[in-house]
Amino acid sequence: MEPELLRTLLMNVASTSRMAVELFLQLQSDSEESDDDIETPDAQDTQLLVAVTDVLSTVEQHLWARETSTEWWDHIVLQAWDDEQWLQNFRMRKATFMGLCAELAPTLRRRDTRLRAALPVEKRVAIAIWKLATPDSYRSVANQFGVGKSTVGMVLMQVCTAINRTLLRRTVTLGNVQDIVDGFAEMGFPNCGGAIDGTHIPILSPPHLASEYVNRKGYFSVVLQALVDHRGRFTDIYSGWPGKVHDARIFRNSSLFRRLRAGTFFPDRKITVGDVEMPTVILGDPAYPLMPWLMKPYTGKLDRSKDRFNYRLSRCRMTVECAFGRLKARWRCLYGKLDLGESSISAVISACCTLHNICEGKGERFSEEWTSEVRRLEDEFAQPESRANREAQERASRIRDALREQFDAESQQ
C-alpha cells in the first residue's frame, strides 16, 4: 500500500475510534444517570476501547508531529550555561530569568493533553525572550528549541500578553518622584520629573491604510512614545500610532498629556524661579508644545543665555534617547520589521519596555557589543527628524525665560 494512503487510513481510523469511545462513554454516563436497571457495559470492555484509541492516537501523533530534539534546552542551557552565556543570549542572568518565570507561571502554565505534553513555563518564556532578543526567524527559533514554527508565534504572544497583564503596571510606573527630581537636579535642571520623546519601530507593510504608516524617512513604522526617569527607566509608554503621525499629535491624544494638563500625574510640588511659580515639568524636543509643565529648547537665533538653557535641557533629555538605544539593542526584534498584526505589535513593544525596566532594575549588565550590532540597522532605519511646533503659551514662556535667567546668573557666580 502507498505510504500516503496508509497515513490517511490510519489517521481516519484513529480519529473515528476516538470519537466512538467518547460517544460510548457519554452514552454509558447517560445510561447510569437515567436508569439503574439498564445493564451497563463491562468495565474491561471500556478500558480496552480506551487503550486501543490511545494506541491509534499515538500512531496518528507520530504521523503529524515532527520529531524534534530538546537536548539543547534541557541539558545544555538549563544545566551547563553560566551567567555570561545567559546574559548574552537572554539579556539577563539565570536568576532573573527564573524569577520572571515564577511571576508569569500562573498565567502561562498549561495542562498536558492525551496527544502531547505541555511546554514547561520556563521553555515558553525562553522561546519568547530569544525571539525578542535576536533577529532570528520563526523557523530558526523553532529549530533551536525543538518546537514547531507556529508554536513560536503562539508562545511569543502568550508570553508578551502575560508580561503586560502581570508586570507592566507595576514595572513601568513613576516610582519615587523625589528621587527623580533630585536626579535631574544633579544633571542641571530643577523640578524635572522626566524626559519625553518618540521613536519609530519598523514594521512590515500593513494590509490596511499602509500609506499612513510610512514615516518621513520612507519606511513603515509605528511610534513608541515614552517618558523616562533620570536613570533611563520607562515611567510611561504609549505605542501603536502610525509612523506618519506627528509626535505632538500622538502626545495630545495620550493619557499622559491629559494627566499632566490636569495636574494629576505628579504630586503637587511647585518651586519659585525668580518671581515665577514653576510646577514639576517634563522635558521634550522642539516637536512638543511648550506648556507650563513641559519645557522644550529655544529655536531660531540664540544668544548665550538661551544656548546655555538649551544645553542643560539637552543634557537631561539625553536620558530618553539613551533609553531607546538600550531598549533596541537589548530587544533586537524592534529593528526587525515586526511581522505581526497591529494589536500584537503594541503588545510586543510594551513587553519589551517592561523587560527593559526589569533588566535595569535588576542591574543586568548592558553590553556595548549589542549597540555595535544594531548600528547597521540604525542606518537602515534612521529616525525621522522632528519638526518644531512654535506655538507656546505665555506662562510657559515666562517659566522658560526665568530658568534661562537663573542658569545665566549661576554661570556668572
UniProtKB/TrEMBL annotation:
Keywords: Hydrolase, Metal-binding, Nuclease, Nucleus. The keyword Nuclease applies. Residues 196-357 form the DDE Tnp4 domain. Its cofactor is a divalent metal cation. The lineage of its organism: Eukaryota, Metazoa, Chordata, Craniata, Vertebrata. GO terms for molecular function: hydrolase activity; metal ion binding; nuclease activity. This is DDE Tnp4 domain-containing protein. It comes from the Eukaryota. It holds the Pfam family DDE_Tnp_4. It is found in: Nucleus. Its main location: nucleus. InterPro entries: HARBI1-like (IPR045249), HARBI1_dom (IPR027806). It comes from Gopherus agassizii. GO terms for cellular component: nucleus. Belongs to the HARBI1 family.
